[in-house]
Amino acid sequence: MNLAATIDHPAAPSTATGIPNKKILFWAFLASDCMFFGTLISTHLVYRLHPPPGNPVPTQVFNIELTSFSTFILLMSSLMMALAVNAIQRGQVRTMRSSILVTIAFGLIFLGCQVFEFNDFVFEKHVTITNSIFGSTFFTLTGTHGTHVAVGVFWLTLMYIRSFKPVDATGGAWVGRAVVHLLLFALTVVLGMYSAIAFAHAALAHGVNATMLAAFANSHGVAVAGTFLAAAGLRWLGMAHGAVDFDARNADDVESMGLYWHFVDIVWIVIFTAVYLLEYVIPAGQVR
Fold first, then answer.
1. Nearest CA to 151 among 41, 267, 239, 232?
2. SS3 sequence, 125-185?
3. In this model, does residue 104 exceed pLDDT 70?
4. Hey, CA dihedral for 134, 139, 142, 145, is it positive or negative?
5. pLDDT (tens digit, 9 = 90+) per residue, 2-36?
6. CA-based nearest residue to 30, from 268, 256, 260
7. Selecting from 3.30.1490.190, 1.20.1080.10, 1.20.120.80, 2.30.30.40, what CATH number does the domain 20-163+246-288 have?
8. What value does the mean pLDDT take over residues 46-61?
9. What are the helix (H) ranges across the chain?
10. Do 59 and 279 touch, CB atoms closer than 8 A?
11. pLDDT tens digit string along 140-183?
12. Distance from CA of residue 181 to its chain's centroid?
């Protein structure tokens, strides 16, 4: 038990509760965020009891296959986040980085699916945040959750870059390298998501065939090439460049990030059940 405590909090100062103050503060933040999401979810459920005339039928709007896929991806990201926390508690920095990168990738896939879904709602189904009660509550709730995922991805990215700080960092040189690292990350994400969403639209419109692939390469080839070049730069920056100032002493920071990520995933499970699945079990307006 003493060894386990040492692994969990290798550099945590003793407190009256036995829990690091940083973690207590973070739990308090998550508690307030839980009440915030509870309000948004409750609002959506209350308004679905008596939908006004002209309100879209959710089951005719939802793409449940796409949402189920993105839900699965987000749940798998929680597994990778747990592996990252376990790795840094054992001082395995490289393993932690790999797990964080996969978690970031899964988070971006989820966000890409959400962008695709919102685009379909607005331009194909003509459901916006202002033209119906359903649109107002749906976009506010799921958009707020998507913002939390985006914040989590950004935080994960910063933590990943922080793990490369050299032991003998000299300020300016390290900051410059970190900024380049962050810019390459942003470029890879923007170009990669743009290319992936454009490819999905083209595939749905024309099917996957030689003609479609040629047209896609002709119109989006620069974005795809830019994605691979930026990713290659990230790979080079991610190679070992000497000892780093990041080890098991930073476990509390990674664990706090993990708490946030798991919270976001749990909230999405509730949203997926209450907003999506409930419509297929008890359609809106049929609850009395």
1. 267
2. CCCCCCCCHHHHHHHHHHHHHHHHHHHHHHHHHHHHHHCCCECCCCCHHHHHHHHHHHHHH
3. yes
4. negative
5. 434 444 444 455 567 777 777 888 889 999 999 99
6. 260
7. 1.20.120.80
8. 83
9. 2-8, 21-49, 58-61, 64-89, 93-119, 133-162, 172-206, 210-237, 251-271, 278-281
10. yes
11. 999 999 999 999 999 999 999 988 888 876 666 778 888 888 89
12. 19
Residue 146: CB atoms within 10 Å = 20
Token pair of 19 as six digits:
């829990």
Q: What's the pLDDT at 12?
A: 52
Q: Which two tokens stand for residue 67?
A: 């949402």
Cα 141 to Cα 130: distance, rounded to the nearest angstrom: 14
Rounding to the nearest 10 degrees, give the CA dihedral for residues 29, 32, 37, 38.
140
Tokens of 173: 């040189």
3-state SS class at 244: strand
**pTM (2 d.p.):** 0.87
More confident residue, 84 or 243: 84
